[in-house]
Design a protein that fits this description.
The complex is a heterodimer of chains A (about 120) and B (about 110). Chain A has about 120 residues and is mainly β. Chain A has strands at about 5, 10-15, 20-25, 30-35, 45-50, 55, 65-70, 75-80, 85-95, 105, 110-115. In chain A, strands 2, 4, 5, 6, 9, 10 and 11 form a seven-stranded mixed β-sheet that branches. Chain B has no helices and eleven strands. With about 110 residues, chain B is an all-beta fold. The termini of chain B are far apart. Chain B has strands at about 5, 10-15, 20-25, 30-35, 45-50, 55, 60-65, 70-75, 85-90, 100, 105-110. In chain B, the strands form two sheets. In chain B, strands 2, 4, 5, 9, 10 and 11 form a six-stranded mixed β-sheet that branches. A five-stranded antiparallel β-sheet of chain B has the order 1-3-8-7-6, with no helix packed on it. Classes of the chains: A mainly beta (about 120), B mainly beta (about 110). The interface between A and B is medium-sized, with 31 and 25 residues.
Chain lengths: ~120, ~110
C-alpha cells in the first residue's frame, strides 16, 4: 500500500477565511512533506516533518502553519491567504533514511483557490 | 539551487520509443528519481537510480551516469495514457529527505 490521502480535494476560500488541509498515510513513514505546485511548474517544497518534528521550513509565509499531530497525520492551516496562493497543494511521505534519499509518495493534492 | 535540466516538451507517436534526458549538477549526489504527473494529479513514482547503469521496469527504463551528471527515462511501446509531465528529481546527501525537481518534460503521445 503506497497510498497518501488528502482532504479536501478542492477548496475555495476568501482572503479572510481560516481553513485546514489534511493529509494521512498508513505506510509507517516517519517523514512527511508539504509542497505547493503552480500550473506547468515543478512542486516547490514548503515544509518537512521528520519524526513529527519540523525539520525544514522553506521560508514559507506565516499565513501557512503546518502541524503534525502524530506519525500518520499532517495538517496545513491556512489564514489570511492571498490570491497568488492559489495552487495545488501536495502532501508526500517517505521513510527516514540516514544515508540516502528515500522515495517520496505523493497524495492526490488539494486544489486551492483564493478569491 | 541545483542545476537540473530537462527538455520542456516532447512529442511522439503511439507504439514508438521516446527518451527523456535529464542533466544535473549537484554536490553530494544521493540518488535520482523519475516521477510521472498527469495534469491536475499527483506525481507518481516511476524509478530510482543511485548507481550507474540501467534499471528496467516493464515499459519504462531509467539510466544513470554519475560521472556525466546524466540520466534518461526510456518509454517503450508508447500509449496515449503516457501523455503526461515527467519530472526528474535529485537527492543530496547533505540535505537528506529533500528532492530537487527539474522543470518537467511535457510528453504528448499522438495516435
Amino acid at each position: 500500500d503506497t497510498e497518501v490521502t488528502q482532504t479536501p480535494k478542492h477548496l475555495v476560500m476568501g482572503m479572510t477565511n481560516k481553513k485546514s488541509l489534511k493529509c494521512e498515510q498508513h505506510m509507517g513513514h516517519r517523514a512527511m512533506y508539504w509542497y505547493k505546485q503552480k500550473a506547468k511548474k515543478p512542486p516547490e517544497l514548503m515544509f518537512v516533518y521528520s519524526y513529527e518534528k519540523l525539520s525544514i521550513n522553506e521560508s514559507v509565509p506565516s499565513r501557512f502553519s503546518p502541524e503534525c499531530p502524530n506519525s500518520s497525520l499532517l495538517n496545513l492551516h491556512l489564514h489570511a491567504l492571498q490570491p497568488e496562493d492559489s495552487a495545488l497543494y501536495l502532501c508526500a511521505s517517505s521513510q527516514v533514511n540516514l544515508i540516502s534519499t528515500d522515495t517520496q509518495y505523493f497524495g492526490p493534492g488539494t486544489r486551492l483557490t483564493v478569491l | 539551487g541545483q542545476n537540473i535540466d530537462q527538455p520542456t516538451e516532447m512529442t511522439a507517436t503511439e507504439g514508438a520509443i521516446v527518451q527523456i534526458n535529464c542533466t544535473y549538477q549537484t554536490s553530494g549526489f544521493n540518488g535520482l528519481f523519475w516521477y510521472q504527473q498527469h495534469a491536475g494529479e499527483a506525481p507518481t513514482f516511476l524509478s530510482y537510480n543511485v548507481l550507474d547503469g540501467l534499471e528496467e521496469k516493464g515499459r519504462f527504463s531509467s539510466f544513470l551516469s554519475r560521472s556525466k551528471g546524466y540520466s534518461y527515462l526510456l518509454l517503450k511501446k508508447l500509449q496515449m495514457k503516457d501523455s503526461a509531465s515527467y519530472l526528474c528529481a535529485v537527492g543530496r546527501g547533505s540535505t537528506l529527505g529533500r528532492l530537487y525537481f527539474g522543470r518537467g518534460t511535457q510528453l504528448t503521445v499522438w495516435p
